[in-house]
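Quiz preparation item.
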């Protein structure tokens, strides 16, 4: 995946700086990359976890009898008078 990078500046206290510096050295990556990974994981979540959650939701209601024929189900939803009420306005 290609990311468009934007430059930003962070002010870190000594404790945080030391922890990040040590962790980056251990992982053989830059502090910038370490921060990017942490932010992605915290705020975007892990891609694989998001995929699994979406796949788990697919077909979750498939065993319900009213969804056996989805066309018929949608048509019953559309039989109401809502469209008539909206066009009368």
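Solution:
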């Amino acid at each position: 995946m290609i990311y468009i990078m934007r430059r930003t500046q962070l002010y870190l206290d000594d404790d945080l700086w030391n922890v990040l510096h040590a962790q980056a050295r251990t992982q053989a990556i830059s502090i910038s990359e370490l921060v990017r990974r942490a932010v992605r994981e915290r705020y975007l979540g892990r891609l694989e976890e998001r995929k699994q959650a979406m796949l788990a939701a697919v077909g979750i209601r498939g065993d319900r009898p009213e969804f056996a024929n989805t066309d018929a189900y949608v048509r019953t939803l559309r039989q109401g008078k809502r469209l008539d009420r909206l066009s009368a306005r």
